Amino acid sequence: MRRSLVSLSLLLLASCTYFQDSKQIEANIVRPGNFKAGSGVIESVSVLPHANKDTGAPRDPRRRPDPNLYRLSLRMDAGGFQTVDIDDGTFMQGEAVELTNDGRIVRVSGTTLNQAVRQ
Fold first, then answer.
1. Hey, which of 20, 41, 88, 116 would disulfide with 27, CB 3.0 to 4.6 Å?
2. For the chain, what is the mean pLDDT?
3. Is residue 31 part of a domain?
4. Parallel, antiparallel, or unpaired for β 81-86 and 104-107?
C-alpha cells in the first residue's frame, strides 16, 4: 500500500513538470552580452519592478506583457556564480537551467522530480 502511494505521489509530481508549449520552458536574457553560457542551478530570484521596457507585443495574446524583469542568481556547474536578468517570472529557486549562447535560459527537464527524490 505504502509503495503504491509513493509511486502515485511521484507520478503526480512528474505530471506537474509537463509543458504543452515549448515557450514555457525558456525565457530571454535581457542583456545577452553579459553572461557566460553553461548550466547551473538557480540560487535566488529577485523582481526588478517596472524594469521591462519591451512591453510591446506579448508572447501570448491572451496575457498582458509583464512590466517587470527578474534577476536570477545562478550557481554554475563549472564553478562560480553569475546573475542574469530575464523577462519571465516563472523560474524558481532550485531549478536546473542552461544558459545558451543565443541569449536564452532553458529549464533542464526533470528538475522538480529530482528535487523531490532528494528530500
1. 88
2. 78
3. yes
4. unpaired
Number of domains in the chain: 1
State how far Cα 42 lies from the chain centre.
8
Q: Which pLDDT score is estimated for 86?
A: 93
Q: Which residues contact residue 104 at a Cβ distance below 8 angstroms, ignoring those fewer than 6 apart?
A: 26, 27, 28, 29
Domain holding 30, by residue range, is: 21-109
| Pairing verdict, β 26-28 and 69-76 | unpaired
* H or E, element range at 13: helix 2-15
* CATH code of 58's domain: 2.40.50
Kindly list the distances between the CA atom of residue 31 and the CA atoms of 10, 35, 71, 103, in Å, as whole numbers in the listed order.
Answer: 37, 8, 11, 8
**CB of 87 closer than 8 Å to CB of 66:** yes
- At 10, the pLDDT band (50, 70, 90 cuts) reads low
Residue 27 lies in a domain: yes
